[in-house]
UniProtKB/TrEMBL annotation:
Protein name (database record): DNA polymerase I
GO MF: 3'-5' exonuclease activity; 5'-3' exonuclease activity; DNA binding; DNA-directed DNA polymerase activity
Keyword Ligase (UniProt): no
PANTHER family: DNA POLYMERASE I, DNA POLYMERASE NU
Biased composition annotated in UniProt, kind: Low complexity: 310-319
Primary role: In addition to polymerase activity, this DNA polymerase exhibits 3'-5' and 5'-3' exonuclease activity.
Domain DNA-directed DNA polymerase family A palm as annotated: residue spans: 704-911
Key words, A-Z: Coiled coil, DNA damage, DNA repair, DNA replication, DNA-binding, DNA-directed DNA polymerase, Exonuclease, Hydrolase, Nuclease, Nucleotidyltransferase, Transferase
Annotated PROSITE patterns: DNA_POLYMERASE_A
GO biological process terms on file: DNA-templated DNA replication; double-strand break repair
Documented EC number(s): 2.7.7.7
DNA sequence: TGCAATGCATA
DNA sequence: GTATGCATTGCAA
């Protein structure tokens, strides 16, 4: 290091925010309830810098009142910043006091940001021969870097890096640090609300800088750009220049650098100690004393100080007197055996008392108390996500906000089973309400331990799904939205998934307790919140009568799984492989060389450069040749190779998505495929299926439908039964719209598409041509989706005007249908939502949008959601009723799958006739409409035959 | 390694 | 035109 004098200018807020958020998961709270995270974080950084660098000149700069100039230029500047957190606001006066006691100058200038103050001072200091180090993590400062001005950046995980000109050149790919301004102006900065150029991100900005040197250079040479980018940049030149101005740090703040103001003086040790003591900083006090020992003239030998106090282990506030927080009420026995107690505060919530239970007597007390509760929230912790293989690690319980218990489970199977037996009286008690988040999971886990969860259920995930189906429903989101509370993240506990992820069992008991009971506690609080809202949205019945009972039905279906003929799929895979290889050969022959057909890049070169199939081939936005399905189909007549390529793609898809993927999904422990039904993802009320998705097994093409042959009954004594609603959505729209003509057609059992064609084209039903029926069918479906003439002409061989005419005659034929559609849209406009026959709502916030495209989409939703959703409601009712009948009758037959309008059963052959009647009756009578519901039944030795 | 975009399977 | 899930690709981290 040279003898040149060195000035360190600290960007206070940047370090304060950084320090504050470093502790966000475990805020430092002292006994007075003050959140000292920000102070702690900032002081750690400051002492760290002093200790490492021993600066002779030092100042700390604060913002004050924001940047008046920038706001004047651009109203939205920094407008989307969240309110400064309370923990930071309260920290500022303390930090000021500490700095004063340390005799460190505080630089503030009303109406200017710290950036500007630091920029101005550093330039002045440079003239006086100083080297300036700007202490900040903020990349914006890179624009200030010169031969004598550096950034001194804290890096993640501790330590610092110094950025001089070479580092800035490398990081930003610029030749001059001043170009950082152009760079920031182009890509924008969402945290400061600097707009930047639309469509330009980091990569493009770097490219532009390399190509044009500056924002002005870019704007002057837009002729060198192409496509969308050219349009966007040209249209937003003004915005670009403004963004550049906003990103520019000012160098003319009215401040004067006077070296003696910044000399690092001896701190008033006693005063600092006193402040630290008041704040209850112990390690920091030691750190401070060490840093300034001997007036700082004998520099400590250590080269780095680990960011102190970042360990996450919570400290029990006391080890004695555990009984004082006991939830056991007036039990006479001691509760000292409740070993752990942990108190956690956040700024928003009251203290939490979470206890784990691992002694016989505390367990006895706990269970006694548990059984006296009318309503309990619980949450199971397991070794994995698959409930069929996961083992219990513990169960958390809570029945009072902020309090709860955790019962850890031993690894040994027998011991674990013994422990769960102690809880059987609770879980199987009909009179205790069980509350949980995604109870289907817990019920499935407990089922593996032969526990049948009985009594009333309240699932917060399902409740929220009904309250707001368009949102997501995971607990973290719900807690943040409704309770203003951030739960401990699972990642924090067990690590990122992959290499070093722990199992829940490997986590310390205290942390398990903290995490698990917090979940139960929060879920309980969410329940309080949601149960009122359900009433307000009028969805209480839907919750009690449909979604909650369905949860048990789905759990049973998922546990049951379906038998899969792996051998069959393997042979199918070989067949496909042969065909694919043959196609490959043909393609290579035609191409004259071997290449990767799956790579669009290589394929493009072959088709358009080598074979020159087209004069001027289309390119994608990335500059590749376009080889998508529609383009290739269009070219199919040009060359035989094209059809082969299309076939190759189709077969590869079939093979990878179904034929090869399904056998891998067979659960080893059961030998069956267990899909997971998601009850809360489809905004309309439908279920969805995943891991694997059994709701999209091919059926349309001959080749694809072969996959269905692999779904087979459990053994020779069983057969598969598929029961599907015929035209349920059209029946629903006919009934809801009270369209007499269509209702009559259904009542008479007519072929509805032929019937529609006959009326629309005004010909007898038996003279309807194939094409006419097909067009009528397309319109019938189109109505359900909210047709447009444009969409229709895309689907049929009709022109746009023919399509329009067809739609017009269609509406003339079914006038009530048209009325119904406009009524739905009106209802949505007035109420902001539409609803199904059972009152399931879908909110349509865009229904009054001024943007016609956005509004149009909402209008189509207004038509479709009640139809699709009512069909979903109806089949859900049927499922619940059938499930109950199967249980009551002690049938061996099981319901296995649901595919929106179809149910699949594994039928015990002797029960076949009874089951056929039962299923058909329950499905057809699940809900009374003015139109009869009709169910087709088919049986077979596999899912294809049963169709 | 994780993400969005694309393409395609179903109702 | 509605509603989903998943495999692959290509790009960003």
């Amino acid at each position: 290091m040279s003898d040149q004098k060195r000035l360190f200018l600290v960007d206070a807020y940047a370090l304060i925010f950084r320090g504050y958020y470093a502790f966000i998961k475990n805020p430092r709270i002292n006994s007075k309830g003050e959140d000292t995270s920000a102070i702690m974080g900032f002081m750690n950084s400051l002492l760290d810098v002093i200790k490492r660098e021993r600066p002779d000149h030092l100042g700390v700069c604060f913002d004050k009142g924001g940047s008046a100039d920038r706001v004047e230029m651009f109203e939205a500047y920094k407008a989307n910043r969240d309110e400064t957190p309370e923990g930071i606001k309260t920290a500022i006066p303390h930090i000021h006091n500490i700095l004063k006691a340390m005799h460190i100058p505080i630089m503030v200038k009303e109406g200017y940001e710290a950036d500007d103050v630091i920029g101005t001072l550093s330039r002045q200091a440079e003239k006086e021969g100083y080297k300036t180090y700007m202490v900040t993590p903020d990349k914006d400062f890179a624009q200030l870097v010169t031969d004598n001005i550096f950034m001194y950046r804290p890096v993640f995980g501790g330590g610092y890096e110094t950025w001089g000109i070479p580092e800035v050149q490398k990081k930003f790919e610029v030749t001059d640090p001043l170009q950082v301004i152009d760079f920031l102006g182009m890509m924008g900065d969402s945290s400061d609300n600097i707009p930047g150029l639309p469509g330009v991100g980091e990569k493009t900005a770097k490219k532009f800088i390399a190509q044009f040197g500056s924002m002005e250079g870019l704007l002057a040479n837009t002729d060198q750009l192409k496509g969308k980018m050219k349009e966007k940049v040209e249209a937003n030149g003004e915005l670009g220049l403004l963004s550049k101005k906003l990103a520019t740090i000012m160098l003319d703040v009215p401040v004067t650098f006077d070296a003696k103001d910044f000399e690092l003086d001896h701190p008033n040790i006693e005063a600092v100690k006193q402040i630290f003591q008041d704040l209850e900083f112990r390690r920091l006090t030691e750190n401070f004393l060490k840093t300034f020992a001997g007036n700082g003239e004998t520099a400590p030998t250590e080269t780095s100080v680990a960011p102190a106090e970042t360990k996450t282990t919570p400290k029990p506030t006391s080890s004695a007197g555990a009984g004082q927080f006991s939830l056991f009420g007036n039990e006479e026995e001691d509760t000292a055996e409740v070993v752990s107690e942990y108190t956690r505060k956040t700024s928003e919530t009251a203290p939490h008392f979470y206890q784990y239970i691992n002694t016989p007597s505390s367990k006895r007390l706990f269970i006694k108390s548990l059984l006296q509760q009318p309503s309990v929230c619980f949450d199971t912790e397991t070794t994995g996500l698959n409930p069929l293989t996961a083992e219990l690690v513990g169960i958390a319980f809570s029945w009072e906000t902020g309090k709860g218990f955790y019962l850890p489970f031993p690894e040994d199977k027998n011991e674990s089973q013994n422990l769960i037996e102690d809880l059987r009286p609770f879980f199987e008690n009909e009179n205790i309400e069980k509350i949980g988040q995604n109870l289907k999971y817990d019920i499935k886990v407990l089922a593996k331990y032969n526990i049948d969860v009985k009594g009333k259920l309240f699932d917060t995930m399902l409740a929220h799904y009904l309250i707001n189906p368009d949102m997501r429903h995971n607990m973290d989101v719900l807690a943040e939205t409704y309770l203003n509370y951030t739960p401990i993240s699972i990642t924090e506990l067990i690590g990122k998934k992959g290499k070093n992820q722990l199992s829940m069992r490997e986590v310390d008991l205290e942390k398990q307790t903290e995490y698990a009971v917090e979940d139960a506690d929060i879920t309980l609080q969410l329940k309080e919140h949601f149960q009122n809202e359900l009433g307000e949205a009028n969805t209480q019945k839907l919750f009690d009568d449909i979604e909650i009972p369905l949860l048990r039905v789905l759990a049973a279906m998922e546990i049951e799984g379906i038998n899969l003929d792996k051998k069959f799929l393997n042979s199918l895979s070989e067949d496909l492989n042969n065909d694919i290889t043959n196609l490959e050969k043909k393609i290579y022959d035609a191409a004259g060389e071997e290449f990767n057909i799956a790579s669009p890049k290589q394929l493009g070169v072959i088709l358009f450069e080598k074979l020159k199939l087209v004069d001027k081939p289309k390119k994608t936005k990335t500059g590749q040749y376009a080889t998508s399905e529609d383009i290739l189909s269009y070219l199919a007549k040009e060359h035989e190779i094209i059809q082969n390529i299309l076939d190759f793609r189709g077969l590869s898809k079939l093979k990878s998505t179904y034929v090869d993927a399904l056998p891998k999904q067979v659960e080893e422990s059961t030998g069956r495929v267990h899909t997971d039904y998601m009850q809360t993802v489809a905004a309309t009320g439908r279920l969805s299926s995943n891991n694997p998705n059994l709701q999209n097994i091919p059926i349309r093409t001959e080749r694809g439908r072969q996959v269905r042959k692999a779904f087979v009954p459990r053994n020779e004594d069983y057969t598969l039964l598929a029961a599907d609603y015929s035209q349920i959505e059209l029946r629903i729209i006919a009934a809801l719209s009270k369209e007499k003509t269509m209702i009559e057609a259904f009542k008479n059992g007519e072929d509805i598409h032929a019937s529609t064609a006959s009326k629309v084209f005004n010909i007898p039903i038996n003279e309807v041509s194939r094409e006419q029926r097909s067009n009528a069918k397309t319109v019938n479906f189109g109505i359900i989706y909210g047709v447009s003439a444009f969409g229709l002409s895309n689907q049929t061989n009709l022109s746009r005007s023919e399509s329009k005419e067809l739609i017009d005659t269609y509406y003339a034929t079914y006038p009530q249908l048209r009325n119904y559609i406009s009524e739905q849209v009106d209802f949505a406009r007035d109420n902001g939502y539409v609803q199904t026959v059972l009152g399931r709502r879908r909110y349509l916030k865009d229904i009054n949008s001024r943007n016609a495209v956005v509004r149009g989409a909402a209008e189509r939703n207004a038509v479709n959601a009640p139809i699709q959703g009512s069909a979903a409601d109806i089949i859900k009712i049927a499922m619940i009723n059938i499930y109950n009948k199967l249980n009551e009758g002690d049938f061996k037959t099981k319901m296995l799958l649901q595919v929106h309008d179809e149910l699949v059963f594994d039928v015990y052959k002797p029960e076949l006739e009874t089951i056929k009647t039962l299923v058909k009756t329950e499905m057809e009578n699940a809900y009374k409409l003015e139109v009869p519901l009709d169910v087709d039944l088919d049986i077979g030795d596999n899912w294809l035959e049963a169709h």
